[in-house]
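ok so i was messing around last nite and threw this chain in just to see what happens. nothing serious, just curious
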Amino acid sequence: MAEDIRITDLAKPSLTAAQQGARDYAETLHIELSQDSILAEARRVTGLTDFGPDDFQTRLAMLCEEWDGDPGLANLGRLSLRNKLVQHASSRLLIRDILQRHPEIHDVSIRAPIVVAGLPRSGTTHLLNLMAADSRLRALPLWESYEPVPRPGERLLDNGVDPRFQRCEDTWQMMQSLSPLLAAMHPMNPDHIHEELELMGPDFASYNYEWLCVSPRWRDHYYASDQTPHYQYMKTVLKILTWQDGDHTGEATRWVLKCPQHLEQLPVLDKTFPDAMVAVTHRDPVSVIQSAITMLAYGQRINRRQVDLKGLLDYWTDRVMHLLQACVSDRDAVPPERSIDVLFHQFMDDDVGTVEKIYERTSLPVTHAARSQLRAFVDAHPRGKEGRVVYDLRGDFGVEPSVLREKFAFYFQRFPVAIEVQ
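result:
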């Protein structure tokens, strides 16, 4: 039986010794959030200098300026953000280098991917990881999403482990020591299947940065920008990964992908992958919001000087609203023969059966081997394996679920989503 987890100190956290120690140590450091210092460190890490087209620098500078000017960020939060930007800049150098040395990668095809789109916390992660258990499909593990291209001259460690995997594992262990309840809300172990959105990071694009730090200036820039070039960049990185697997045409590889951002970019997604099968998940947005902001509030105890519960509620209510308005408006951008709507409550009742329906729509046979792999994954990953977080939107954030739900009447009118939080 999964243990119930109730976080009772969201507003006024009681820090563990490890959390307080990490915060205290970080406060002794000078953390430079500047474009020049980040690019310089990426050059040092990789030994490379060519970042390719420099349009990304405007976006990098915007992130640095917004985050550097945030007085609420603790130094530990600044360090985490800087590390992420250095990681993206380093990957950009490596991606540019391999494409310059092997231009034939551009000719690799990304053939009929299966793409999951849906609100965060709406079952997209479970659906993706479940389909990734099917050995016929290629998925993106977290460690590879962070570092899609190896560093020059780097070899497997003595124990046979890829250094990129080890760096991701080291980060995960540190995260668990500082945020021990994270695994129950959103596992980030190295082999966990992750979002291809991460592959837009080296182009300094996507809404992912909003999850790392509340970033209204970045959000407004993202809203105002055509995301097509960044989706194309992500597709190019998928080609690199396919090529690195030894499939130099792409004909032997079929990807399974997912990202909540796709909900508000369905026309761009369809343009980028015109033969994709798109599964759109749907869940009560009140459940989504309470889950997301509880997770983010828990993370703020080490990343920010104070936890801003109202700020998180307001920001992510608006953000989920934008995602769903775009979904309602653009859902038909993906034709019915290449799309399917997945209701969260039905998926939870029969997850393997839901995958079989997706396969049927995309003409992927449900073989005995595939069904066995799917069921083996479900058996090995019961819901709430790491514990079950008990959420309290009313008690923690001071809002009545029914009142919040009224904002999303337009969504319930379009999709028969079950109400969860009363």
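not much to say yet. The radius of gyration is 21 Å.
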